[in-house]
Amino acid sequence: MSKNYRLKVGKVGHKVVDAYKGVEEKFCDAFLEKDENSEQGYSLKTSVTAKKVVGVYQKIEDSVVGEYKKIEGKFVDAFLEEVDSEEE
C-alpha cells in the first residue's frame, strides 16, 4: 500500500515553487519560440547557442533537483503529513 502525502502550506515552499517558475519562464522567453510543427508546440530559437544553453540549464536543474532530494529526505517528517487516499 502506498502512502499519500500533501505539502504543508508554508512560506518556504511557495518561495521555492515561485523561484523555479520564474527561472523556467525566463528560459522559455529567451530560448524558445512557438512552432506549430513541433509536438510540444515550441522549438529552440538558435541551434549551437541553444544547445550550449540547454546543457548548462540541464546541469543547473540536475544540481538543484539533486540538492532538493537531499533536503526532502531530511525534512519530510517536518513538512508533510500522511493522509488517507480519500482525503486527497
Biggest sheet, spatial arrangement of strands: 1-4
Order of helices and strands: EHEEHE
- Give me the oligomer status: single chain
Overall 3D geometry?
A: elongated
Rg calculated over all Cα atoms: 18 Å
Number of domains: 1
Helix content bin? 55-70%
Based on DSSP secondary structure assignment, what is the total number of beta strands?
4
* Number of helical elements: 2
Q: What are the defining features of this structure?
A:
two-stranded antiparallel sheet, alpha+beta, 60% helix
Protein architecture, described:
- The structure is a single chain.
- The protein is 60% helix and 16% strand.
- The longest helix has 32 residues.
- The strands form 2 sheets. Strands 1-4 form a two-stranded antiparallel ribbon.
- It is elongated.
- The mean pLDDT is 82.
- The chain has one domain.
- With 88 residues, the protein is of the alpha+beta class.
- It is built from 2 helices and 4 strands, in the order βαββαβ.
- A hairpin with a 7-residue loop joins β2 and β3.
